[in-house]
Amino acid sequence: MNELLVIGHPDLLAERQRWLQGLLQERRLSDNTVEAYERDTRQFLTFLTGHLAGPPRLSDISTLRPADLRGFLAQRRKGGAGARTLGRGLAGLRSFLRYLERSGLANAAGAAAVRSPKQPKSLPKPLTDREALNVVTTDAQLAEEPWVAARNAAVLTLLYGCGLRISEALDLTPGDFAGTPTSLRINGKGGKTRIVPLMAVARDAVATYLRLCPYHAGADQPMFRGTRGAKLQPAIIQREMQKLRGALGLPDTATPHALRHSFATHLLAGGGDLRTIQELLGHASLSTTQVYTGVDPTRLLEIYDRAHPRA
Fold first, then answer.
1. By three-state DSSP, how is residue 195 classified?
2. Is residue 253 classed exposed, middle or buried when 0-12, 13-18 and 19+ CB atoms within 10 A define those classes?
3. C-alpha distances in Å from residue 233, one per residue of 118, 217, 242
4. In terms of pLDDT, which residue wins out, 283 or 156?
5. DSSP-derived pairing of the beta strands 193-197 and 183-187
6. Which conformational region is residue 215 in: left (phi greater than 0), alpha (psi within -120 to 50 degrees), or beta?
7. Are 85 and 76 in contact (CB under 8 A)?
8. CA 113 to each of CA 85, 90, 101, 107: distance values in angstroms, whole numbers, following the listed order
9. Which residues, other chains included, contact 201 with Cβ-Cβ below 8 Å and sequence gap of 6+?
């Protein structure tokens, strides 16, 4: 955080430095986030220097208008900044202005009046059928210990075979698999519960893992464990998937969440009903499922014509 690179009066720079330190020490934001906010505010102060024909003071910040902020965003956009970068930059400026407002040094209303740039909708691209099947096999796993390889295969199979979120899979317990279940009761986002079918291949993958795992969880405890016996964390599966991408030659978009996306997309391609897929995914809105599966209006009409009794 080199203030020599920032153009501004000492009173303003001192407050900015106190704000950045507070982000690190009190709010405990990550180093990367604070560095990004430092960079964004430095660029804004540089912009203001040209905009105001001189180094900005605290009094200049206190009288900022929405037009000033829009001018800064327009300059950044002209320089090639995308919507995500602009949105993060505006978030940083709002945070700084709110800090100054709490200290009685500025008014943050101008920043609040500026709309954040519309973010492009981005979803992980689905894997092909063959890619997904290769990822979930035990033989494909790169872990040396057999029980760890079986664990990874079981988790990935549940993501692809049942369309689970990774957090939902890691919350499953041995009790969920007692007997020979043909479905799972999943507690999803917002406390919503849904029932998803459990294929034999997924049930068998879990049974293999439970047989090999050296740690024995209680019936109501999370069954997927790390190598030291604690509950398995999503980051572990994400790293394993990263290794698989390199070993199997998969694109960077092949993530654990992409397996859930693949589940939905492959079901739809096989003639699945969009409303049913919505229920399986646990989406509150059908429009979310439509975006998630990349369904276009023509495809929706085809589903309607085939399925609606009055079509």
1. strand
2. middle
3. 32, 15, 15
4. 156
5. antiparallel
6. beta
7. yes
8. 19, 11, 15, 12
9. 157, 161
Q: Token pair of 255, please? A: 């993530």
As to burial, measured by CB atoms within 10 angstroms (0-12 exposed, 13-18 middle, 19+ buried), residue 92 is buried
pLDDT digits (tens, 9 = 90+) for 146-195: 999 999 999 999 999 998 999 999 999 999 999 899 999 998 877 788 99
> Which three-class secondary structure state does DSSP give residue 70?
helix
Catalytic residue numbers?
A: 165, 189, 257, 260, 283, 292
Which of the four pLDDT bands, split at 50, 70 and 90, describes residue 307?
A: low
Q: What is the largest CA-CA distance in the chain?
A: 75
SS3 of residue 183 by DSSP:
strand
Q: The dihedral of CA 109, 115, 117, 121: what is its sign?
A: positive
Q: Look at residue 205 and give its three-state secondary structure.
A: helix
How far, in Å, CA of 103 to CA of 8, rounded? 19
Least trusted range by pLDDT, from 50-54, 95-99, 273-277: 273-277
Structure tokens at 256: 């654990």
Separation between Cα atoms, residue 295 and residue 152, nearest integer Å: 30
Helix or strand holding residue 187 (H, E): strand 183-187
Q: CA–CA separation, 234 vs 213, rounded Å?
A: 18
> Which pair of structure tokens corresponds to residue 285?
């809105």
CA gap 182, 197 in Å, rounded: 6
DSSP letter string over 101-153?
HHTTS--THHHHTSPPPPPPP--PPPPPHHHHHHHHSGGG---SSHHHHHHHH
